[in-house]
Amino acid sequence: MRITIAHNNNSETLKVVAHLKQALEKKTGYVFDAKYPDVVISVGGDGTLINAFHRYENQISSIRFIGIHTGHLGFYTDWHGAEIEKMVDALFLREPETVKYPLLEVELITEANERKRYLALNESAVKQISHTLEANVYIDDQLFENFRGDGLCVSTPTGSTGYNKSLGGAVIHPQLKALQMAEIASINNRVFRSLSSPIVIAPDQWITIVPKADKFVMTVDGNQINVCNAKKIIYRISNKVIRFDRFGHTHFWSRVQSAFIGDNDAPV
Fold first, then answer.
1. What's the CATH number where 182 sits?
2. pTM of the entire structure?
3. Judgement on whether residues 158 and 59 belong to the same structural domain of the protein
4. How large is the average pLDDT for residues 153-173?
5. Does 267 map to a domain?
C-alpha cells in the first residue's frame, strides 16, 4: 500500500500529522509515496481535502481518501485527530470498503472551439464581477431561460451543503447522482424573467450556460479562472467518482445536523 499525507500548516494539524506518522511507523506493508499513492490521508478541514483532490484528480480512479479533521466535523472528514490509532488500525486490519461521491465535469468551449475540461468536487460558478451577467441557460439542448443577475452556481450533491446552500439551494444526499443549479442574485421584473429557484436535473442530463460577455469569471471549487472569448460552458455528472474509505464513515444527515443545527435533545 502506498500512502501519502496531505495537510495544512496549522500548528494543531502538524501535531496530528506527527502522531499519524508515529502510528504508521508501527505498521508494515506500506510505503510513503506522494507521487502515485493508493491512499491519501488528509489532515485538516474540508479545504485541505479539496486541495488534495485537485492535486491527484488525474489519478482519481486509483486513489482512496481518508479525512481527519482537527476542528469541527467536516463533510469530507470522518475522523478526529484524537482517533489516529483507531483509524490506522482499521486501515491495516480491514479489507478496504469505499463510499463513492459523484463529481462535476466542467467543459469550457472557446470561440475557437478549444475545449478545456475541469473536475469539481463541490461546485463551479459563472460570475460577472462588475456588471450584470447575461446568459442563456440550456437543459440538454433546449433553451430553459435567459438569465440576468450576478451569476449561476452548479453543484454536486456533496457540494450542495456549501456555496449552493448559502444561495438558497437544496441539500441533496450524495447517493442521488444529480446536479443542482442555483441563481446568484437574479433580476426578475416585468422585463427580465428567470425561474428564480434552484433546479435539480437527472444524471443523464446536462446544463449549458452561454454567457453574453467576452470576459467573465468561472470558479471551480473556489479557484478563480478569468475567461475570455468563451462560447459556452457545459456541466454534467462526470463518469469519475471520488472514493473514501468507508470505515468510520459518518452518516450524511448526521453531518448536516452537526454542521447546521447542532445538538437536539428533543424526545422522539
1. 2.60.200.30
2. 0.91
3. no
4. 95
5. no
